[in-house]
Design goal:
Four copies of one chain form a homotetramer. Chain A is of the alpha/beta class. Chain A is built from ten helices and seven strands. The two termini of chain A are 27 Å apart.
Chain lengths: 386, 386, 386, 386
């Protein structure tokens, strides 16, 4: 499971280890407290990992998106909230590359390296309350967006809105500090408590033409339609990290303090069954990373069918990781017994985090897509959820 | 499911409804706060329901234990912590009847009615740190007990200890206020947070002969060995109440605010599957109540085989209710979607309560007992967990 | 599980036992051979059980439909094919009562008693190839029906057809021997091999007015719409019998020849889990029988809501019995090991019978109906499958 | 899934395709008929594939064992009985390499190529009725062996027996035609019907010293203890082939004749869920093949821990493929509906084959081993089943 990212760039393993240790140390009390993890976000900025996916020619570490996902998985094993905001930062950068022009992407990445910028999300196509109106040179955003992960304490936002003229979705990259943007700290879920996935209000926020990602625009080409695959793959890797983190915790406790339970055949068989689910999800995730990297590398040569197969590969990773994370989050307690249920130990956070996060979009629809592939030899039509 | 208790006595339905409403009103904030629910325990005292299982000739309501279990189920649907301490109060009374002499039981029940006494639990045979030493007339308890549900704010305790002379288990009924008893408010689980299931320390606590339940003593007769069946049946009914409470909450929300999800065939089929599990557990519980009442009524005529069949009937109720409570606690969110995951709404308490409480003793061993019955036509040997 | 039928009439337990033994003796070779079980159908005729559901005033045994279902369950444990044709005989009689006039029903029942008639099924609304045409006095049936269980060797048929004038479903009761009726022995499934569920061809078969069940007609009243509930309840009881039969066989083998497997905790826990599924299905079935009898007794006072609740109760029995029969049919081999897989022993017939029979109509739709009840407080609209 | 074997040798894809087509053509009637598939065994001999795993220097195709497993999987998709005897032929050859000396293995392989020999199995450590007695030069086998797959119509047998002197297991390679060997055609299971897994009787069969595989002998070194891993991996690939074959059949039918069922979301989601299980098993199998090949290549440098990890990797493949094969064998009918249950179509053979074959050794023990790995960081001790 510990394979290192396979991008051309280099990830500083020491920087990552340092970050993982620091996050692990405070993960339990921060889960109880909730709110924005400003100190830990500072650690992430300091780690240099915000440049992980950026090309070395622009000062980045040049790790492929598959490599980023593997890092996301490892962070999620100790802190799935920060894994999510970290992952979404890289998704936002990828969005500029996939929906925008080369110039827009290059500028975004260069500024990110130079300013150690942290990107947040305000792209949520299901929430249609945000509207872009006005003519060229006088465009303004009015309205609200919900579920804006990582918007608090961010430097840049990727925003989706309905264009008042065309009634189509437009996507823009703007500074969080721009006048009229109000990031509300109103996220109050019982899991993924430090993802800051609350509301952002836009009160007549100016949007210059250069901020609009229109070439090719959202899902504007086969290649652009890989973007939802990246988002779904991030979810899968956060779930996988949660599952692996919980199982790792169970092992640490059994090795540290063996008990009668450690030799109970039923407990062992349950652990074996859970590990099988987690390992299976790990293999699906590994394959999805490989295929995503291949798809991204193909650029505009990517065919619709290939994109469809990638989407299905990601769907397999996501469904299996979702099931695994919930199963381990619940089953860890049968492995460890009633004394593991203290609030102080906080082992319930694995289930709570998995439970909140796995509701992003319904798995049954993913299963239906997988069924269309196996029964009817069809791949899904690109959308923000397929 | 709304069948009324079938004891000869009468339960004041109005008093119960009143209690249920009052508990429901504050259940969510109290779950977040944890700690002892002193105000709500006062409401239970005031309701008269502490006399529910006591014979009318002694001033009680004369409801059968099966009837009590049904009330436990209904309370658990709104507040499973208080359902548990309420149920254990009645289990402690039943313990005086099953392990002690008629005089001991009658005295305990009369005092309970007169003093509106609330009983707490310090009987936990797995924890062997508490020792009864000294000769007749000078017996003392030294040591600690863990998992003492309902001990905080109680008037009486049922205590189990190891007799220093015989190395056997002894059980006694003593006032909580007795010198040397220290009830610690150290319960810190992430579920069943207001059951006060912490530690009680005994520092040379005097125990008079009349307090020892020795006729017939713990599991001292076939009839006495129904006591673990009552304890297990209580667990089953708390789990069942949790499952029914969670499903009821899902219905209330769908009726109040129908959405696209209300007509999604996958969501409906999931709800149907969950309801099937809950209804099945309900039927097992109903049968277990009937058989327990019949077994208790049989008194010393009860055969070992009959007791074994009752234990298995209770085991079926417990396993099925445990599965149902966990499944609904987890699955309710697929029925309601991501917006139902706020801390404010507290819907995760169903899973947290079920998760903590269902770890009492391993279900796999119950399944093995059921397997011995179906494959080998054997019933379990009485123990505190079978 | 051995409760006796609760109708007013009396079932000859000895006659039933005799039939069960005779069927058991030859069940395995007959399963391998397939085809029509003429000798065993003769035994059923001889047993007097074809009059089981008929009123004593007409010479029947007067057992309620719930009581009939319990007999069906017991027959299915040894021979689920003959249980099915036996059950459908009684369903056909009930159809004359529910869709036809009192006179039609009385005549059908009287003739059944007098002639020891065996009824077969040609009512299959999904197959719309059979058409009734012609004017009053000259009506004729043309076309074919598939899945006609028990038609081979039958005396009477209940037939559904499309009325050429109204395009509506009509149902008639006609003698199998009538000119133009050809019962084909073309049933070739890998399970339920002796149900003779093949094709019946109708080549200008005359239908007199008195044969048409028009008062109130198919699903023509709330009471008439209980008919699909009866059909579905029969399926549930055949599945339940299969599951109980398979588990019983596993017990017989373990008691006869105990082995290391008999004490393997994993084997026992698996057996326990299977028995829990079967017992749960048994409780649902028991409740469905009770509610069906109550619904039938209510006659035209039955409300649509009550009918809906009965349908859901039957659905619970059916889904749970279907799952149990498949699970036991598959799991019995883990209880018994590889030496139990000989063709000679024929233990695979439980799975094959369950597999073929449980495909009657999709369970997912039943789960959706149960979901509509629990989430939206709705009962299903009557149809031939709900 | 279609990856080609990665050994250095070359598999004639055309020869394999030809064999697959020929087997597919007659698989259904042969399943009904049972018995030895002499004609198809002749086709296998003619295909040259009996030399698949043999080194090119000895005239073989030089495909790695992982490559052989992949061929086994593909054959199993059309005929799991012949896949099994084909696989066991190669397992027998590998047994000479792993338990015997280089000379013994080389001789066995050379003779196999020259004589187009087909090897059969009489190695079954659980059946201890076969005894090797007598002094050097006069050793004889007396007794019987059960479950001797592929013994009928074979040229060579690998036999295990108890050494009368040492009471230890000895393994020998002898000609099937040797005087005193009687291969009984008494295999009568309801699945895997053409594996000829019946009894072989040995009546004073002479065994020369050169036939005894004693260097290093059964499980006589870390490398030798890979042999059970190969056997278990074969099972996994037969199961996987069954699962893939069944799903492939479901797709063929839906593409050939689309129906309402083809667009039913529940049917599609069920298909998706099944495909996820099959694909997951496929990934585990792929990894196991890779690790087995690496382990075999390591030779005596293989450490006990590495061997343990390989055994666990194979266990994951086996458990997941077993579950997948049973699930698809059962679930295919929900994808295709009641009309797919004819005996003529024979689709039940997937379940019957999976059911019989997956009972080889209990999966629960494999799950326990996986649990020991994940909870306690332990690998299994080598045995014939771990």
């Amino acid at each position: 499971m510990d394979e290192s990212p396979r991008g051309e760039g280099t990830l500083s393993e020491r920087a990552l280890q340092h970050l993982l240790s620091a996050l692990a140390e405070t993960a339990i009390p921060r889960d109880l407290a909730g709110g924005s993890a400003r100190a830990e976000r500072k650690l992430i900025r300091a780690s240099g990992l915000l440049a992980l996916s950026i090309d070395p020619s622009l000062g980045g570490l040049g790790v492929s998106f598959g490599g980023v996902l593997d890092v996301v998985r490892r962070i999620a094993a100790v802190d799935s909230s920060l894994a999510h905001v970290f992952a979404f930062h890289h998704l936002m950068l990828a969005t500029t590359r996939l929906f925008g022009s080369a110039e827009q992407a290059t500028r975004a990445e260069r500024e990110t390296v130079e300013g150690k910028l942290f990107w947040g999300n305000a792209l949520n196509p299901k929430d249609t309350r945000l509207v872009l109106s006005g003519a060229v040179g006088a465009r303004r955003l009015h309205g609200e967006k919900s579920f804006c992960s990582g918007a608090v304490d961010s430097d840049r936002l990727i925003v989706s809105a309905i264009d008042a003229h065309t009634q189509k979705l437009v996507v823009a990259a703007i500074p969080t500090a721009r006048r009229g943007v109000t990031v509300q700290e109103d996220w109050d879920a019982f899991g993924q408590r430090q993802t800051d996935s609350g509301t952002v209000a836009f009160d007549g926020v100016a949007v210059e033409e250069a901020a609009l990602l229109r070439t090719p625009g959202p899902l504007g080409s086969v290649r652009a339609s890989l973007r939802p695959c990246l988002a779904q793959a991030i979810l899968a890797h956060v779930y996988l990290g949660l599952a692996e983190g919980a199982l790792g915790e169970a092992q640490r406790r059994h090795l540290r303090e063996p008990s009668a339970r450690s030799e109970d055949p039923f407990v062992l068989a349950r652990a074996g069954k859970l590990s099988l689910a987690v390992d299976g999800a790990g293999l699906f995730a590994e394959r999805a990373r490989r295929e995503l990297d291949r798809g991204l590398a193909a650029g505009d040569a990517l065919t619709a069918r290939e994109r469809g197969e990638i989407a299905l590969s990601v769907a397999r990773a996501k469904v299996s990781a979702s099931d695994a994370a919930l199963a381990v989050g619940q089953g860890i307690f049968e492995l460890l017994g009633p004394r593991a249920t203290t609030r102080r130990d906080g082992l319930d956070r694995f289930w709570r985090n998995a439970r909140v996060h796995t509701l992003h979009d319904p798995l049954d629809h993913k299963l239906r897509e997988l069924g269309e592939r196996v029964l009817l030899d069809r791949v899904p039509t690109p959308s923000f959820y397929a």
